[in-house]
Amino acid sequence: MSNLQIRKMTYDDIPLICKAENDEAESNVEYLKNHMENQENKKCSALIALYDDQIAGHVFLYYECKWGGLKKQGLPSVVDLAVYELYRRKGIATALMDAAESEARKFHSKIYLDVCLNSEYGPAQCFYIKRGYVPDGAGVYFEGEVLGLNAPCRNDDELSLCLVKELKG
């Protein structure tokens, strides 16, 4: 029987996360340190999943997110849900999202996230829809802003759809 644990991330986890992601670049280290600083400053929860005592994934929940589709509206937002390849299809993303949504309920009755539209994110798009997330109705976002009709864009990680979920008590 496997052992799945969700807990708050610590600075000591950063090298292990980078190794698990096969990305030990300084920019990734700084990215993770920034989330840890935001956790220390009570702006977010940085959650990590351990599967059989190995780092299997993470997610960040920002209590009042200042970017993304519904930025600066006082809503909590899921940022950067990641489950590493070896640990997929084991319920880890579900456990991380359950923990993030449970934490978000302390701050608001809604939660949102932005999901990229390129094919690499197809499984994530389906996952969020099955969890009850629905589009915010504003259309597609590019580089954090609503993309106007016939406006040019690139199908990269900056092209996204904002999804919202009502959190039940």
Describe the structure in brief.
This protein is an alpha+beta fold and 169 residues long. The protein has a single domain, classed as Aminopeptidase (3-Layer(aba) Sandwich), CATH 3.40.630.30. The protein contains 4 helices and 8 strands; from the N terminus they run E-H-H-E-E-E-H-E-H-E-E-E.
Helix count? 4
The third-level CATH topology is Aminopeptidase
Q: What's the average pLDDT?
A: 94
Radius of gyration: 16 Å
Sum up the overall morphology in one term: globular
Q: Could you walk me through the main structural features you see in this protein, from its secondary elements to its overall organization?
A:
This protein has 169 residues and is α+β, with helices and mostly antiparallel strands. The chain has a single domain, classed as Aminopeptidase, CATH 3.40.630.30. A hairpin with a 2-residue loop joins strand 6 and strand 7. The longest helix has 15 residues. It is 27% helix and 33% strand. The chain contains four helices and eight strands; from the N terminus they run E-H-H-E-E-E-H-E-H-E-E-E. The strands form two sheets. A four-stranded antiparallel beta sheet has the order 1-2-3-4, sandwiched between helices. It has a four-stranded antiparallel beta sheet with strand order 5-8-6-7, with helices on one face.
Question: Which descriptors apply to this entry?
Answer:
four-stranded antiparallel β-sheet, alpha+beta, globular, Aminopeptidase, single chain, 8 strands
Topology (elements, then pairings):
Layout: E1 4-8, H1 14-21, H2 26-40, E2 44-51, E3 54-62, E4 77-83, H3 92-104, E5 110-116, H4 122-130, E6 134-142, E7 145-146, E8 159-166
